[in-house]
Amino acid sequence: MTDLTNLIPSHEPSEDTLATVGGMALDAIPLVGPLAGRALDHALAMRERERRREFDLAIVGEVQRLAEQAETALTVADVVSSDEFLATLARTRREAAETASTTKRQRLARAAVSSLDPGAPSRAEREGYLRLIIELDDLHIWLLSYFVHPRKWLETHDLAHTYANVSAGSPALPLEAALGHFGHTSSAPVENALADIQRRGLVDVPLRTFMSQSGMLQPRITSRGRALLHFLNQGNAADAVPPAA
Questions:
Q1: What phi and psi values does residue 218 have, to the nearest 5 degrees?
Q2: 190 with 139: CB under 8 angstroms?
């Protein structure tokens, strides 16, 4: 796989580009008119180049992981001769350049490389997972992990005290405590994200329904949600932490 890594160009700007930026004296000249356009175009191009390189390295890492896991010698020729892989790579690479999330780029890389795995789900299933990976962001994925087993998640993060003396309530109470511990103070984005994954059949959470403590903390992920996390190989769901607020 060293050969694959060597195929990835550095994202470092060329000397000509550096000279251009230096000549613009961005810190000394107000960003107005054509100069503003030049500066923004350059910044966007640089950011996109960095993200694509990061994604390409993630692809190499996923291919290496697959080769080690399957104990199969994958060559550059094996990788670049797969029409499905190349088509998926083109699609995920565009998405990777547009997201600010490093972890989402990692998920996109995993989806692309899954087409090389003989033990992966069917092509139709992989396509369904890819659509979800494109549509869902870090908060969605964390919510899936949390609802695998809320009680275990809270215990893992030393938050069992948040429900120890609560005999009844809604699933919203421990969820708010979990998010508040990581600096999330607004419930609207969380409820919107939860609605997104409920519409897709990944969880079933009666968020504001009053119930016993055991009901508040019981697993709420569906079989489809579990299958997505398994496809992503997210690791121990109880260890997952929400994205920065």
A1: -80, 155
A2: yes
CB count in 10 Å sphere of residue 164? 8
CA distance 113 to 59: 7
Give the span between the Cα atoms of 120 and 65, in whole angstroms. 14
Residue 198 carries which side chain, given as an amino acid letter? Q
The C-alpha atoms of residue 13 and residue 195 are separated, in whole angstroms, by: 42
| DSSP 3-state of 17 | helix
Structure confidence at residue 195 as a pLDDT band (50, 70, 90): very high
Kindly state the tokens that stand for 230.
């398994």
Predicted confidence band at 7 (pLDDT cuts at 50, 70, 90)?
Answer: low
Give the three-class secondary structure for 245.
coil
Q: Is the pLDDT of residue 138 over 70?
A: yes
The pLDDT of residue 33 is above 60: no
Extents of the domains making up the chain: 2-135, 139-239
Is 211 strand, coil or helix? strand
The whole-angstrom separation of Cα 217 and Cα 244 is 23
Residues 6+ apart with CB under 8 A from 230: none
For residues 194-222, give the mean pLDDT: 96
